[in-house]
Protein 1
Amino acid sequence: MVDEGDGQTLHVPPPAADLPARMEKFLAFANDSSDDPFIHPVVRAVLLHFWLAYEHPYVDGNGRTARAVFYWYMLTHNYWLFEYLSISRIILKSVRQYARAYLYAEHDDRDATYFLVYHLKAIRLALEELHHYLARKQKEMRKAITLLRKIPDLNYRQIALLQHALKHQDAVYTIESHKNSHNIVRATARTDLFDLVERRYLTKRKQNRRYYFGPVPDIGEKLDIFPSTRL
C-alpha cells in the first residue's frame, strides 16, 4: 500500500508464499456459521474488509475487493439496507484516516480495533447521508404531486402515471397495462399515453405490434419539478 500523495510505502503485505494458507483461514472465517465464540455480523464483515486488504493478494483492486466482501457479508446476513449505503463514498472523503486505521492496527500488533472504530463511524455517516437523501426525495415528491396537479389538461390517470414514473424512472408501460390499471377502454388508454408522448413526458417504441412507453430521461426536470439528483 502506497500513499498516493507522497509515494511513501504504508504497508508491505505478508510473504506471498504463505498466501494460499492464509486465504484458507480467511475463507473459513468468512463462512463460519458457528456461534462459539459469537461475533456480531457487522464486526465480522468489517474484519473481513480489514483482513483481505491487509493480505493484499492482488496487484490492484484490493480495496475495492475488500469493500465488496464487506457488502457481500452484510447482504447475505440480511442487512438489506446496506445495499443502499455508500461506504466507499465516505472512505473516499477520508482516505487518509482509512490508511491510518490500517497503520495503527499494523503497528499495534495487528489490533484491528482502530479499523473497526473507523469503519463503524463510516457506517454511521453513510446512514446519516441516506436519511438526508430520503428526506430530500420525500420533500421533492410531495412538491411533485402538488405541481403535477397544476399542469393543464392532464387527467387523473395521466397524473397517476407520471407520479409513478417519477418514482420509477425505469418503468415500462403499455396500452394494455394502462387500460387495466384504470379500468378504461383501450382507445382511452391509447389517447392518454400518446398525449404524454406528444407532451414529451414519455418515450415510445414499437416492438412487433405492441407499443412500449417509458419516462423520458430526467423527467423531473422536464416537468420543472426538481433537478436531477443522485445519492
Protein 2
Amino acid sequence: MKLVHGFCAAVIAVVGVLTCLSGARDAFAARTIVSFPKPVIDEPIANVRGQEVAVLSGGCFWGVQAVFQHTRGVISATSGYSGGEARTAHYEMVGRGNTGHAESVKVVFDPSQITFGQLLMIFFSVAHNPTELDKQGPDWGTQYRSAVFFSSDEQKRVAQAYITQLDAAEVYPQKIVTQVVPLNGFYPAESYHQDYLKHHQDSPYIQINDLPKLAELKKQYPQLYRDY
C-alpha cells in the first residue's frame, strides 16, 4: 500500500487530482440502486450490553477503520492483518501480496446497539466496493481483497445470506466477490496505521478515497452515524 499511495501522491503533484481519482471507484458510486437493502437474515438486537467482534477486509484499512469508528454501537475499530501467519503480519511483508494476509479491521461492537448484519450493510454499501477482485480503488493485490472473517456459525450464516440477497437484488452490476472465511487470527497493524484518517485528513489519498465514505455513511445512515 505504501508504494501505491506514494505513487498516487506523486501523480497528484505532477498532473493533478483527476488522474488518481479515476482509479478510485467507491462502492456507492458503482451501485445500481439508491436505497441499500437491509439484511433479511440477521442476529437480533441483544437484551443486555456486551461485546462481539467482526473482522472485515475491504481494501486499505485506513478508510474501513474510519467508517466503523464513526458507526454507533462500535466500541473500537483496529487496523490489522488477517488470513496469514503471525510471523508475516508486518506491513512490509504483507505489502508483497504473498503472505495470505488481507488488510483488515477488527470491529468490536455492542450487540445491544447494532447487529452484525447492520455492520455488513455499512461494509457492503459505503466502506468498499465488494465487486472488485483483489483490488480496491487504486490499490491492487490480494492483500486488498474483500473478505468477511467469521468467528461463529451465525456470522457465517448471516454473511452468506446477505451476499446472496444483494446479488439476487442486483444491487451491483457485477457479482459480489467477497470471501466468507473462518477467522484464524487477527494481528494489529503498526501504530502509525491506527487512526490514520483522523490524523491525515490533508492527505490526497484520504481526501479522494476515504473522506467520501464518511460523507456517504452520514448521508445514508444518519441514525447509525456519530462523530468522533
